[in-house]
Write a structure and sequence with these properties.
Blueprint (H helix, E strand, L loop, with lengths): L1 E3 L2 E3 L1 H31 L4 E6 L3 E8 L2 H7 L3 E3 L4 H6 L6 E2 L20 E2 L3
Antiparallel strand pairs: 1-2, 3-4, 4-5, 6-7
Length: about 120
């Protein structure tokens, strides 16, 4: 236990603070990578998700504030995702016009996202 400035902090308090700092640094790196990918590809948004047999979750998203507020943390059924179709070989990794791609043109998300680039 250490003391300072009128407060007492335990070692676990410092461990928690260090974990938060490391997490913030990782978040900065992820955000920088997403910004670089978005800018390099000329896209409106870039994001990182996880996907399992049932759902896909957006964990990090870089876009305009409205899009971020709307989709950050969103969970989608995999049946409604481009990623599942890309992983299953139904669509290529890059789809310049999602509205023209038969395997995804009818998905609800296609009304909002008109291009897709995915990396497994």
């Amino acid at each position: 236990m250490e003391e300072g400035a009128g407060s007492v902090r335990t070692t676990s308090d410092y461990d928690e603070l260090l974990e938060k700092l490391e997490s913030a640094q990782e978040t900065d790196v992820v955000e920088q990578a997403l910004v670089a990918a978005r800018d390099h590809l000329g896209m409106d948004a870039s994001y990182i998700t996880t996907i399992d047999a049932r759902i896909q979750t957006i964990h990090a998203l870089v876009s305009d504030p409205e899009t971020v507020n709307r989709f950050q943390g969103t969970v989608f059924p995999v049946e409604q995702t481009y990623c599942m179709r890309m992983l299953g070989g139904e669509i290529p990794n890059a789809v310049p016009d999602t509205r023209a791609e038969p395997a995804i043109s009818e998905l609800p998300v296609t009304g909002e996202f008109h291009a897709y680039v995915g990396v497994p």
